[in-house]
Amino acid sequence: MARLFIRVICLLLLVGQSAPHAEISRNTYHTILDVVSGTYAPAFQQRNERLRIDRLWSDDTNQASAWREEDRQGEIAVLRIPGGIARQPIINADAFTLIICHEIGHHLAGPPAVWKYSVEGQADYFGVADCLRRVFPKLPEYNVLREITTPEIVIDSCRLVFDDREEGELCMRSAMAGARLTRYFADKRHIGYPDFEMPEQLIIPRTNMGLPSPQCRLDTYFAAALCKPDAAGAGNRSAPWLCTDHPLQYDGLRPRCWFNTFSGQ
């Protein structure tokens, strides 16, 4: 069967040079990739696929991507992770982990999707709601959670949803990873930083299959951090990490700045 090489460019980033003040070491880069790979390899095996992460530490390109290939043994879900994205000054270890989780989401997050790839907003939501929730507890606390640096809206919202202290801190850590990553997106577009206090007001008539705004992406990360699937009516049988019917916790739903219930799934 012909080899498939369908490439999904996810982050729409430019090519750059290594940053002199990057926070992520080569060891941290590989540690994060090891944990994500070990966490999700079984999920791909259940789909009769193999996960391959191309680790390109010396590559200064700051663009991560996901695609599929096929050989005589079957389908391969591929992530291409150059070191350049890890060396960006604003990208810390938690934001880098979210980048990898987002790429995993393109393969595993399900619809809404284009071809076999979950759209950007869906991959963002999965990246926090499923991936960070599973991966962060296995990683060191790279960024010590200090409430003084975490906005009150994040602290209060996470504490309101999660009674358990560790779950609440995981919610906060995930939200702040999203904040750091969306600041990077905003920098690349030369616009102001997204703000938890100022969610996107746009309500789209149909699901956005492209790239949402940095603010909309922050709203998505925050919603995913607040999703509590075990709450009454919150779960989804095919995607237990996804809050699709959550009357007790509206903030856990995918935001309407990119997702439309009637046109998406």
What descriptors fit this protein?
alpha+beta; two-stranded antiparallel ribbon; 265 residues
Low-pLDDT runs: 1-20
Shape: globular
**Total number of distinct structural domains:** 1
Could you tell me how far the N terminus lies from the C terminus, measured between alpha carbons in angstroms? 31 Å
Q: List the quaternary state of the chains.
A: single chain
The chain-level mean pLDDT equals 87
* Rg result: 17 Å
Number of DSSP helical runs: 7
E-strand count: 6
User: Which H/E pattern describes the elements?
Assistant: EHEEEHHEEHHHH
The structure class reads: alpha+beta
Strand order of the largest sheet: 1-3-4-2
Helix share bin: 25-40%
Report the biggest beta sheet as strand number plus sense, adding barrel if it closes.
Answer: 4 strands, mixed
Strand % is: 5-15%
Question: How would you describe this protein?
Answer:
There is one protein chain. The protein has one domain (about 5-250). The chain is built from seven helices and six strands; from the N terminus they run βαβββααββαααα. By secondary structure, the protein is of the alpha+beta class. The chain starts with 5 loop residues before the first strand and ends in a 39-residue tail after the last helix. A hairpin with a 2-residue loop joins strand 3 and strand 4. The protein has a four-stranded mixed sheet. Helix content is about 40%, strand content about 10%.
